[in-house]
Design a protein that fits this description.
Number of helices: 12
CATH class of the largest domain: Alpha Beta
Structural class: alpha/beta
Radius of gyration: 21 Å
Strand content: 15-25%
CATH architecture of the largest domain: 3-Layer(aba) Sandwich
Strand order of the largest sheet: 5-4-3-6-7-9-8
Oligomer: single chain
Shape: elongated
Largest sheet: 7 strands, mixed
Distance between the termini: 71 Å
């Protein structure tokens, strides 16, 4: 990479990413260099003339090569901000997206209410991955406790690490489980961002997703709804009275997921859109029989 100053290295990185056809080459180059050198926004601007040593330039050069191969920025950096947390990533976990914060924000007032009314709020996060959803809820609702369940032992190791890093490990435990197979007890909130991509579509996803997100976290079966069926079938046996089930969904799945839940005795109480106006979050309670 030509040039030794921070500004020169940034310019060269932007050029290489742009020539490789990377979208937002400027933003990616900036995010990578800031993250790798632990720079603030201010120091990034004021230290443009700083000479980078050989080791710093090599680290940046390696990262740019990885981005050219379409590895996502935050996977290269090894962590990503989510809600108020900083989450470590691993090859066994889905990279948490900002849309999933909508699911957390939707559930916070419900968790606070349950905690105020009953003195406890126990949360089950199915397919927990990095632990993002459950750990963010525990962070935002002091007093709540949570269980992160996942089929991947590697994902659970990452979730436990994130609980430690973000100061909520004393209220979080993990269970290796295929949905409810290894789960005991009842919960006030059951939440999941399950795999919901139609199987035939997985191979057409952007390289950043297809090559680097675990297939286990993407493939939702022939119609994208396998996980919702499995969760709907088991949720009633693990839900306390007045408990809630909440999901992230694909943009076109609201009616189908609602129908699956209705068939299993649940009524939809909320549907929330993302910033793009797409259906993103659904919340259900046990239907009241009249």
């Amino acid at each position: 990479m030509s040039g030794n100053t921070l500004a020169e290295v940034l310019l060269a990185a932007r050029r290489r990413l742009s020539e490789a056809g990377v979208n937002d080459a400027a933003g990616d180059a900036r995010a990578l260099i800031m993250g790798l050198l632990a720079l603030t926004s201010t120091s990034f601007i004021t230290e443009g003339g700083r000479i980078l040593d050989r080791a710093e330039r090599q680290v940046i050069d390696d990262a740019i090569e990885r981005r050219i191969r379409r590895e996502p920025v935050h996977r290269i950096l090894g962590h990503r901000a989510f809600s108020r947390l900083d989450l470590a990533l691993s090859s066994e976990t889905l990279e948490p997206r900002p849309d999933t914060e909508i699911l957390v924000d939707t559930l916070v007032p419900h968790a606070q209410r349950i905690l105020a009314e009953t003195g406890r709020c126990r949360i089950l996060d199915l397919g927990t991955g990095t632990g993002a959803i459950c750990l963010a809820l525990l962070d935002l609702v002091p007093g709540a406790t949570g269980v992160g369940a996942d089929l991947s032992a590697g994902a659970l190791e990452t979730a436990r690490r994130n609980a430690e890093l973000n100061g909520v490990a004393d209220r979080f435990e993990t269970v290796e489980s295929d949905w409810f197979a290894g789960i005991d007890g009842a919960f006030d909130i059951i939440v999941s961002n399950p795999p919901y991509i139609v199987r035939s579509v997985v191979g057409t996803l952007d390289d950043e997703v297809r090559l680097y997100d675990p297939i286990l976290a993407l493939d939702g079966g022939e119609d994208g709804l396998d996980a919702y069926r499995a969760i709907a079938a088991g949720a009633g046996d693990h839900l306390r009275e007045n408990g809630l089930v909440a999901y992230e969904i694909g943009y076109d799945q609201k009616d189908q997921v609602t129908a699956i839940m209705r068939e299993n005795g649940f009524a939809r109480i909320a549907a929330v859109e993302d910033l793009g106006g797409n259906d993103r979050v659904l919340v259900f309670s046990k239907a009241v029989l009249l």
